[in-house]
Amino acid sequence: MPGQSLLQRILGQTGLYAAIACYVIFALLPIYWTIKISVTPQDLLYSEGIKLWPSRMTLANYTSVLKATDFPRYFLNSFLVSVTTAVIVTVVASFAGYALSRFRFRGKALVSLVLLLTQTFPLVMVIPPIYRIMGQLGLTDNLYGLIIIYTAFNIAFATFLMQSFLDGVPKDLEEAAMIDGCTRFEALRRVIMPLTLPGMGATVAFVFTAAWSELLFALMLINSESQKTFSVGLLTFVSKFAVDWGQMMAASVMALIPVCLFFMFLQRYLVTGLTAGAVKG
Amino acid sequence: MASVSLRNVHKKFGPITVLESIDLDIADGEFVVLVGPSGCGKSTLLRSIAGLEAINGGEIQIGDRPVTHMAPKDRDIAMVFQSYALYPHMDVRRNMAFSLNLRKSPAALIGERVAEASAKLGLNALLDRLPKQLSGGQRQRVAMGRAIVRNPKVFLFDEPLSNLDAKLRATMRTEIKALHQSLKTTAIYVTHDQVEAMTMANRIVVMSDGVIQQVGPPLELYDRPANMFVAGFIGSPTMNFFDAVIVRGAARLADGSLLPLAPAAWKEGREIVIGIRPEHLHFADQGFPATVTVVEPLGMSTQVTLDAVEERVTLLALERPQLSPGDRKYLTAKAADIHVFDRVSGLRLN
Fold first, then answer.
1. Ordered strands of the B328-332 beta sheet
2. Which helix (H) or strand (E) holds B349?
3. What is the pLDDT of residue A276?
4. What pLDDT sits at residue A192?
5. Burial of A200 (0-12, 13-18, 19+ CB in 10 A)
6. Interface probe with B: pick from A102, A106, A172, A180, most Cβ of B within 10 Å
């Protein structure tokens, strides 16, 4: 910046990077600690409790989680529920968001309001009625039940998210496509959809993560081992008198992997600016 | 190529009427410019012809086909948008080929048409670029290329030059006109810029408040505007207006000075408004008095602003008068150059 001495600039830069470093450490330390404990042998867990890295490492926690527990099953359940929810929510929210973004129809404001209202209820308040309804429908202790609930709870936010992304795509583009020979649906598929991929990516990522880490409903509705999701499964490491920290952390690290992979895959869709150059800008 | 005809077209947005009984016939190959201030309905009319707006009454025909209830894609038209509306995820080649691809035209034909259009518009070097890698003028050209490859019956232009800078706008204006002269496709062009309208059109349609005010060739509108709105809208700098009363076949201005009128059966005492274009006003030994306030030399001409008869008056002189602010002068105009309008209806009287 002009008008600043070299010293001021260096100090400014140092301050900036120090602040960023503090934030990164703050955000990543719990994850680091999880990984550290997952590779710490059982006998060192308490004796080297606050050391930054254990003097010996082991993968025993991982092998026992994979071989001696039902975790592979829990993972699979979580994966099925999260992916299905993310796909359904994104597809429905894309169409709903398109309608809210592009059409004028009677009751549009009311629809938006009701969607917004659904977001204001505390979860704890709606659990009992949901439990009763799902019970009568035979959807308790059942992954379908979870998918339905997660879809219902995420769709409002996802719709608003998609609407804002679609609002950012100029209307001229689909009109140009419609004059060029597309029906409205073709214009949506060939022109609008490719441009909203970042938005859809963000929506998929958001819903997937929400469903993947959900605990409350899964805990309430699922009883049998075969239907448990991993977040519920994690609690099996907590027994009445002890917590098996090593295995619990190993399972947690493994639970992080799909989310990380997912975000790595989606990252390129999350970049904005794909619409640059469409219209004057 | 085709003619376009509009019969009694009505359009409302809620309770607001934006187009009121529009009747217009556009001949095959004609270049018609719709012009008017913002909100006059010109863009809505163009979008109605394109099928992007549904009309509430009337009929639209392109060629010999009624298209009133047809989807835009079935009307065989091409449109160039103000925002260019290029597909950002497709390169220039795919942008231009998009409509032909949708029609499943053979690849050889598509290649040929794209090559032809890009050669015509000087886009050959840009075919593999994405829209975001192009300048405003280049994007504008691609938008035109996209329109011409499909060889439509009618071109629609919605203020296509508004986003360009003044110099580029003048160049593109000439290019579009030249393009129309070589393609001879019927074109309907919307603008709020009367210079574009004057320079490009075979015929101009002046609109205001959803109603057509006058239709005619540019010079006819300039020389014989049908009403005060058209008189004030067409021409830059704008026409000077003065309230006047008919006295013994002449126009008496508010300060009592008289201006000659072309002989006609003028009713004594009638309240009128006279209009004089800036280039038709000149300095004289007698006429009405005026005080110079601003002198703006433009090189080719000099624009002089004066205060006269409680009005601000603009005069355009082709010579270079030696004037300074505060000078007192007399202004006059030839009888044949004075436009006479009714003060109440605003309609032309002579």
1. B282-284, B328-332, B288-297, B302-308, B311-317
2. none
3. 39
4. 92
5. buried
6. A180
Q: What are the backbone dihedrals phi and psi of residue A59, each rounded to the nearest 5 degrees, phi first?
A: -105, 10
Confidence category of residue A225, pLDDT binned at 50, 70, 90: confident
Interval B93-123: pLDDT, tens: 999 999 999 999 999 999 999 999 999 888 9
CA-based nearest residue in chain B for residue A178? B73
Contact B333, B281 (CB under 8 A): yes
Domain A70-244+256-272 -> CATH class: mainly alpha
Testing the interface with A: which of B67, B98, B188 to mutate, by most A Cβ within 10 A?
B98
Residue A182, chain B, CB below 8 Å: the answer is: yes
pLDDT at residue A159 is higher than 90: yes
Say whether A277 and B139 touch across the interface (CB within 8 A): yes
ipTM: 0.84
Instruction: List the structure tokens of B18.
Output: 């934006």
Of all residues in chain A, the one with the smallest CA distance to B84 is: A279
Q: Does the CB of B73 have a partner CB in chain A at under 8 Å?
A: yes
pLDDT 10s digits, B26-57: 999 999 999 999 989 999 999 999 999 999 99
- Mark yes or no for CB contact A176/B79 under 8 Å: yes
Give the phi and the psi of residue A21 in degrees, each rounded to 5: -60, -45
Radius of gyration of chain A (CA): 24
Is B181:B201 a contact under the CB 8 Å cutoff? Answer: no
Q: Which of B47, B100, B102 to mutate to test the interface with A (most CBs of A within 10 A)?
A: B102
The CA-atom distances, in angstroms, between B225 and each of A54, B190, B213 are: 93, 20, 9
Hey, is B158 helix, strand or coil? strand
Per-residue pLDDT of A105-115, as tens digits, reads: 889 999 999 99
> What are the tens digits of pLDDT across the range B59-73?
999 999 999 999 999
Say yes or no: B168 contacts chain A, CB-CB below 8 A.
no
A-B CB pairs within 8 A amount to 88
In angstroms, the Cα distances linking A142 to A132, A137, B334 are 14, 11, 94
How many angstroms separate the CA atoms of B70 and B54, rounded? 10
What residues of A are in contact with residue B98 (Cβ under 8 Å)? Answer: 177, 180
- How far is residue B279's CA from residue B318's CA, in Å, rounded to a whole number? 8
Q: Please state, in angstroms and as integers, the Cα–Cα distance from residue B292 to each residue in A151, B259, B303, following that order.
A: 75, 20, 11
